[in-house]
Specification:
5% strand, binds zinc ion, 2 helices, mainly alpha, two-stranded antiparallel sheet, 84 residues
Length: 84
């Protein structure tokens, strides 16, 4: 029986360190790992930040940090509120 190395990809949460091995199988390619993790509710941002689906304060804060800042809303005729 030959012995040969195998490479597998596992997604790991940047917030808690949970890996998807406990939830979904090992994956032969990075793309397969990303696809399976997203189907299981994981968030993988464009900058490769990974957040598992746990719902606690730390994970909600991590997701909030991924959101872009809210744009300033100004109604026509309203003076700008940020007068520096
Ligand atoms: Zn997590």
């Amino acid at each position: 029986m030959p012995i040969s190395p195998r490479t597998f990809h596992v997604v790991v949460c940047d917030t808690c360190g949970l890996d998807d091995e406990e939830v979904i199988a090992l994956h032969e390619t990075r793309e397969d790992a990303v696809t399976a993790a997203r189907r299981a509710g994981w968030i993988i941002a464009a900058d490769r930040t990974v957040t598992c689906p746990r719902d606690d304060h730390q994970h909600r804060a991590a997701i909030d940090a991924l959101m872009p800042p809210e744009p300033p809303i100004q109604i026509d005729g309203q003076l700008p509120l940020d007068l520096r």
